[in-house]
What we know:
Blueprint: H1 15-28, H2 34-39, E1 46-61, E2 75-78, H3 85-90, H4 100-109, E3 112-117, H5 127-132, E4 134-141, E5 147-152, H6 161-175, E6 180-185, H7 189-198, E7 201-213, H8 218-227
Antiparallel strand pairs: 1-6, 1-7, 2-3, 3-4, 4-5
Amino acid sequence: MATLGEEVGLRQVRKDELDALKQRLARHLPHSLALQLLSSWGRRRVTLQPSHIRNLWLYQLKAPTMLNAKLPQMYHVTRLRKEDASAVWTNWEFNTFDSMENVRNDIIHFPSVGIRERGPEDGVGSLQQEAEEILVSWIRTYKFGLMGTTFTLPQHRRQGLAGAATMALANQLLQEGLPAFVFIEDSNTASVQLHEKLGFERQIAVNAVKLLFHEATDQDYLDVMRRNLP
């Protein structure tokens, strides 16, 4: 069994990618993560989308943590793969804020965790076994540094998978010298309780908004997001 929060064999992100992420965080936290994106728009007129305003809290884990809970034997902790982008984006409640292309890019370039249900015992370690494993829970790092898009398939919930994924990623970020933080809506009591149980502490209020160019479309918004790929 895997211990919650233990170090796992996750993808080692290139040093230049980590350095770039640290620089972005130094410039824009804790004041506004939107500044980096807005700076690329120059003087173009933008409009606020009232239906895309989210009132959030920033929760942060300040030190690596080990929990004693164990994962059931049929699961193991891995990293996300680029082919997982479709599942991650499709199951994300707020996927209108970003494109599948951006999600795939974040998975490729930044730390992430995917918990998979093990395939058949035959051919352990084979490519066939890897293909037969089922991604059941995950969390990723956005290009702006926060952890998110946390999700567990309904039939695999109440087994500690979200907590295991969150702690594995948080500990990896902290070991790399990066902050481990998430945004949570105040009304999401289940997520608040989970993260407080894991040791995350409430820090500051955050307002997440979606801005569009004046007389622009959602596609224009996504085009700007793509131009901000690392």
